[in-house]
Amino acid sequence: xxxxxxxxxxxxxxxACERNSYTLxxxxxxxxxxxxxxxxxxxxxxxxxxxxxxxxxxSDNECKLHMVDSDGAKFDQExxxxxxxxxxxxxxxxxxxxxxxxxxxxxxxxxxxxxxECDQADVRLSFDQQGNASCSKCGGIWALNxxxxxxxxxxxxxxxxxxxxxxxxxxxxx
Length: 174
What we know:
This protein has helices at 2-16, 81-86, and strands at 31-36, 51-58, 63-69, 74-79, 88-89, 94-97, 109-112, 126-127, 132-134, 141-143, 149-150, 160-161, 163-166, 169-173.
């Protein structure tokens, strides 16, 4: 009986341990997004060093995607009810682009537009032409060209999401 108790207790402790391992892709927030890379502004995604931010904006009776590229140019795309229901953009949107470094396959990467340190839907990152994303609330700076790691000592990297491209159609989903 004592052995059964010790065995059950050790199994309980073994399964109750917190998982502290790092994974490349985040599952913290749901993401489901698809676009055609031949259409502007998504055609910028295949150029190394170019990034665009994408977020949903809802008003009384309409929903649209609001996009801003590395140069600050803004684009809007109306969404129908089906697209609105299908597109989930993480904590508060996406930053997508092809990094200059650590990317031998020249594939598109997707990060959350939300600050990983603040972790609030109303705190969005801004980014510049050099590929640095920054948070105005906590002062964090992350390098989009190198896996979204912090360049000023913040503990968390950017939330990154898996991206697939098939026949020019880009899909971000976790």
